[in-house]
Amino acid sequence: MASPTLADDIRQNLGELSPAERKVARVLLAGYPAAGFETIAVLAERASVSAPTVIRFVNRLGYQGFPDFQAALRSELDARNASPLSLYETARFGGSATEQVGKTATTEDITRSRKSVGPDSALLRHGSQVFTGAVTATLAELPPHDFEHAVRLMSDRKRRITLAGGRFTHLLAQYLGLHLMQLRDDVRFLPDRAVERTAVLAALTRRDVLVIFDYRRYESDKTTMSALVKEQGGKVVLFTDTWLSPAASHAEVVLPSRVTAPSPYDSLVPTLAVLETVVAGVITALGDDARSRMQHGEDIARRAGLY
Fold first, then answer.
1. How far apart are CA 110 and CA 106, in angstroms?
2. Whether the Cβ atoms of residue 63 and residue 74 lie closer than 8 Å to each other
């Protein structure tokens, strides 16, 4: 599976750092990932510490030196910006249930990948391992606080929910939105046409929750929309991958999922598992109100001949 990002490592180690090292950490996190490519001297100046403090900081994270740290950051960014074509060409998608993206594909990786696509059931077994591992890891690593906060926001009937997806993830936005519509009022999708989309974004207020799906090869409009919602006092719930969309810096809630797949395309299976768990949480939070809403919807659909 994909390793945590360097930003995750830094956050997790904050409590073990010296006060001076924490200054370096905060500068890196505030300007992540670009700040990591500054020179030691520039980073030390921005953090108001000495150059040796920067070196001790990266050593504390387990790196032999600053060049080693920057190499790891470059590798992470390569994985973050990977496309299906680049994954296909390097054959990083095959082999085992561990995610190959972000490290150099070896000859053994490529050989195992080609062998997995045979006439027998090898690919089925491989798919079972990959998807089972990815779903299990995603749910285990999901921050409980963020998950519970997402459920609270989506089950708060005083709030209006707007959902927006991307090239592929609009399918997930629709899937979640159609479920929420059966459970509560004030759920809608962000319109595609520019005039309608502008009108919706301009009318967002403190009572609005924007639910965004943004995965690697991130779409810049998702970051812009998240910033607008935050500026207008609303909340952003972000579904993303383990490398984290840039929109995460504006989100109230971030729910990352693994994207491991037996093909060069990132998998949405783990995210779907998260969505269905969120829906279960919303149903529980709404209680009898959810059942009443569902019953009313069934009655209306039956009378209208829709079901």
1. 7
2. no
The predicted-structure confidence for 200-246, as pLDDT tens digits, reads as follows 999 999 999 999 999 988 898 999 999 999 999 999 999 998 878 88
- Locate the DSSP E strands across the chain: 160-164, 187-189, 208-213, 235-241, 253-257
Burial group, residue 104, by CB count within 10 angstroms (0-12, 13-18, 19+): exposed
Give 236's Cβ-side CA count (13 Å radius).
28
Do 243 and 254 contact (CB within 8 A), yes or no? no
Distance separating alpha carbons of residues 2 and 24, to the nearest angstrom: 25
- Specify the pLDDT at position 8: 77
Contact between 189 and 173 under an 8 Å Cβ cutoff? The reply is yes
Q: Are strands 235-241 and 187-189 parallel, antiparallel or unpaired?
A: unpaired
Q: Between 3.20.20.10, 3.40.920.10, 3.40.50.10490, 3.40.50.2300, what CATH number should domain 142-303 receive?
A: 3.40.50.10490
What is the DSSP code (8-state) at residue 209? Answer: E
CA distance 275 to 272: 5
Model pLDDT for residues 263-297, shown as the tens digit of each residue: 888 899 999 999 999 999 999 999 999 999 999 99
Tokens found for residue 15? 């409590």
Residue entry with tokens 């299976």: 269
Instruction: Answer whether CATH 1.20.1290.10 is correct for domain 6-80.
Output: no
Domain range summary for the chain, segments of one domain joined by +: 6-80, 84-140, 142-303
The answer to whether the beta carbons of residues 15 and 25 sit under 8 Å apart is no
> What's the predicted TM-score (pTM) here?
0.69
* Mean pLDDT, rounded, of the chain: 84
